[in-house]
Amino acid sequence: MLRDKSLIPLSHQHQHALALCVRIERASPIPEGDLAAWLAEIEQIFQTEIGIHFAAEESVVFPAARSFNELNSLVDDLLADHAWLRHQFAQTQGLSSSEVRGLAQRLSGHIRKEERQLFERMQELMSNEQLAALGGELEDALRDAAQTCILPTEKTRLRSAK
């Protein structure tokens, strides 16, 4: 299903986060000498985009979804993901290479659940007016989020296979 314009800003941020997840997966296992650079990049992305994104979903999207009883358990699952992911992001500097990979896998699964289940169903259940109002609230909630992908550093840039 084509994404409603009200949810496109969140979908763009999902693409940024998925790009990070793919890079982490391809770089895994992350060499010990590169781990600090990866952790710094992950922390920066959380501070400039993902943390703001989570707050916008929790204050705007999830309450709107909860107006439909059938979405309540899905919202509960997504909130549990947010709690786990926030906890991991808060400990970023202490994560091992395998924990970084686990974080990326959980984040990727979470994003796919939002895109394929929550957003799709909300678009089916909500009127155009409700979606437009949601879009306006999201615009305000996402105002401080980064609008572009963070470029990889020399250490976090994927290297070609030899």
Question: Would you kindly provide a brief summary of this structure?
Answer:
This protein has 162 residues and is mainly α. It is built from five helices and no strands. It has one domain (8-141).
Work out the helicity level. Answer: over 70%
Largest sheet: none
Strand element count? 0
Secondary-structure element string? HHHHH
Spatial shape: elongated
Estimate the strand proportion.
under 5%
Radius of gyration over all CA atoms, rounded: 16 Å
Overall residue-averaged pLDDT value: 93
What's the total helix number? 5
Number of domains: 1
Taking pLDDT < 50 over at least 5 consecutive residues as the criterion, the unreliable ranges are: none
Label the structural class.
mainly alpha
Distance between the termini: 39 Å
What does this structure look like?
This protein is mainly α. It has one domain. It is elongated, with a radius of gyration of 16 Å. The model has no long low-confidence stretch (mean pLDDT 93).
Question: Key terms for this structure?
Answer:
mainly alpha, 5 helices
Topology:
Blueprint: H1 8-27, H2 32-65, H3 72-90, H4 97-125, H5 128-141
Helix pairs in contact: 1-2, 1-4, 2-3, 2-4, 2-5, 3-4
